[in-house]
Amino acid sequence: MPRFASPTLEDDLGLTPLPNPPPHVGVLIERSPDGVLQVRLLGENAPGAVWVNFRSADFKRRIAEGKQGLLGRAVGLAKGEKPLVWDATAGLGRDAVRLAVMGATVVAFERDPVVGALLRDGIARGREGDDALAEALSNRITLIEGDARALFARGALDPPPDVIFLDPMFPERGTALAKKEAQLLGALCGVGGDADEDAELFRAAAALAPKRIVVKRPRHAPTIIPGREPVHRFEGKSVRYDLYLP
Predict the structure, then answer these.
(1) Based on the domain organization, do 95 and 134 belong to the same domain?
(2) What pTM value is reported for the model?
(3) Are residues 64 and 174 in the same domain?
(4) Is residue 46 part of a domain?
(5) How many CA within 13 A on the CB side of residue 226?
(6) How remote is the C-alpha of 128 from its chain's centroid?
(7) Domain-located, residue 32
(8) What integer is the mean pLDDT of 18-35?
(9) Closest by alpha carbon to 100, among 153, 165, 148?
């Protein structure tokens, strides 16, 4: 999928300037009139723009779940722990930021440069303010743009994590395909994950011997490595968190 930058955007991602007339296929990264970095698909019937907004009403509802929610329990925050969490597949950052707001220190890895740029912009705007979200984004989250598998293998990151969180892409069905974020991420990163890559990432995480590995999956999806069952599952209506103790 070709990637383009708006002519008004000072592009540091090495993207091709958008031609005139624009193409019928591709992904465009641009800034809105109020300066928000956003990405949209090009072409007829393409969905609207996607950006990262940690101050939206939807994200406030996610935060309100708190430490006693599935994610907090799976990572250990519900027990009063304040772990160092490596989110190996940050995406648009919702889980990483939720963890930071709940008190974890988070290192978020994102390998796609366009998704990473969206997340970096969302974090910067979320830091504006004087509340728990701004404090968490300012003090407890670090974004590293690169492939977590390769970075894990180098062993150059310090200190080591207490928890490694994995949320690899999974080929959803039904209404999820209609969501503009799913369509955009599919165009940028591929529709659904690669089972071999996911297993490789899990093994790279396990080799670091954290206290916990937490894998987020659709509720009825197979385990990340066939035959390797978690020690516990925290199940919701549509997703679950598989807990492994390496």
Answers:
(1) yes
(2) 0.92
(3) yes
(4) no
(5) 2
(6) 21
(7) yes
(8) 92
(9) 165
Cis peptide before 226 (omega within 30 of 0): no
User: Minimal CA–CA distance to 21: which of 35, 2, 42?
Assistant: 42
95-152 tens-digit pLDDT: 999 999 999 999 999 999 999 999 999 999 999 988 999 999 999 999 999 999 888 8
Q: Where are the alpha helices (DSSP H) in the chain?
A: 57-64, 70-75, 94-101, 113-126, 132-139, 148-154, 180-189, 195-207
Strand order in the sheet with 239-244: 141-145, 105-110, 84-87, 163-166, 212-218, 239-244, 232-235
Average the pLDDT over each of 8-12, 107-111, 131-135, 171-175 and give the range with the smallest value.
171-175
Domain count, the chain: 2
What phi and psi, each to the nearest 5 degrees, are found at residue 138?
-80, -30
79 or 233: which carries more pLDDT confidence?
A: 233
| 10 and 98 housed in the same domain | no
Do 27 and 61 belong to one domain?
Answer: no
Q: What average pLDDT does the segment 20-33 reach? A: 92
Q: Amino acid identity, residue 147?
A: D
- Tell me phi and psi for residue 18, to 5 degrees: -70, 125
What's the burial of 156, exposed, middle or buried (CB within 10 Å: 0-12/13-18/19+)? Answer: exposed
Give me the domain span that covers residue 216: 57-244
Same domain, 104 and 147: yes
> Per-residue pLDDT tens for 140-162?
999 999 999 888 888 767 889 99
Strands 27-31 and 37-41 turn out to be antiparallel
